[in-house]
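User: I've been going back and forth on whether these two constructs are worth ordering. Before I decide, could you fold them both?

Assistant: Sure. I'll take them in the order you sent them. The first construct and its structure tokens:
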Amino acid sequence: MNYDDLTFFLAALSEKGLSFHSRGGVPPGAPLRQKFNDLFYKPHAHQQLEMICLLQGSLALRINGHWRECPRRAVQVFVPGAVHGEHYLDPGAGYRMLWATVLPAALLFHVTEHTPLTGYSTSKQRLAIAPPMCPQLWKTSRAPDFARDLRLRAKFHYLLMECVEYTLSDQAPRGMRPADFHEQIVEQIKHYIREYYWEDISLARMAGIVHYSPGHLNAVFRRSEKMPLHRYINEVRLLQARQLLQGGRLLVKQAAAAVGFKDPLYFSRIFARRFGIRPAAIRPARRRRKQWPAAPPPRRPQASLQVISTQKRSMGVKR
């Protein structure tokens, strides 16, 4: 993975644009008659958007159960939920393919390839870029109608080109060290957890997003943050739950579910361990102050009611 690959990616975006693949959709093109078994990536889907661009060779793509030949210099976009996999088309030629993953504040790039001698492999050198347009690119890809709205797709295409062009023009080509990528990976994962802590976040899901094995990702995260990934997830959720409980509007089980805990008993146990107080002890104190105000509401004097009723009777006599 190098800046030449990124330049190739930008040229493909400019020349042939984007081909979008949604959940359940049938990809365009003629079906392939060959049968493929030993896929490098087994058919899978993600909750975040991914893109591929064939750099060299020939490649077969499985998209929602349909096999198609991947066109070169054309960027394929897999909308969240689209099932996809890959396989070499010519065992004697192999291929190189660029992957791009959209995150809340960055774009991650890596290369997969196949050669007759070494078989399938993933590039050791990877690239993470964080131009200022990335948050808007992420929000556009997460829009509810993104899979169908042509204007949102056009906006995404424009922002994606801006991100890559900004990176290529702002930074001179330079070597990429694994440590730089690891640091960026950790920051992006932390950012994702802080933004979407209530979702079903797990080590396996985060590893799938960045294309790491769960064990490798946890080791990288632990070296950087001095704690395993699951503990960081719990820490973010517990802090958010404490704020919700202090608001006095949610029950303990409601607060637990709101921040992503499925088991209220487990939530109560680790909450008490973290803060030294049971979560149930926070809300009732605020509720009692609301039920017993400092002073009772003022009452209207009874005499005024008698005067009003007397006036009504006297008005009735005159009529």
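The second construct, handled the same way:
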Amino acid sequence: MPPPTLAEVVPRLQEVTVGEGDVIFAKGDAGDCLYIVDSGEVRVHEDGRILATIPAGRIFGEFTVLQSAERTATVSATQPSHLYRFDQRELYQLIAEQVAVGRGLIRLILKRLEENRQGSESGPGRRTSRVSISLEPLEQDLD
């Protein structure tokens, strides 16, 4: 099965524009979607602590959307930002149609878990997420 193309993914996304300080979701909200930062930057925070800063080209919300769980932290924009929202139903449908998407998400989550583990070993502080949503790595899984 060929990897997903951008043309297959884009129609499933919803554009979201947020201003500086706007809350995208709060801790405890339903994890019914994930987001891709197209431009701008968002911050993941909890109880006044910054857990991560997510720049353009990165993804967030992937843990809870796959678990159908509540959000574990709040995410807000640090500046005006343009996001793409990927609803759970659309994501699950794409995973069913394109196994490579599921593999890519698993790799992304494992990488994020490793980054979080390494970050916690080095102590608290501001960390920048380095996980990309690029569809290109999905093609590598099919080899």
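Notes on the second construct follow. DSSP finds five helices and eight strands in the chain. The beta strands are 13-18, 23-25, 33-39, 41-46, 49-55, 59-60, 74-77, 81-87.
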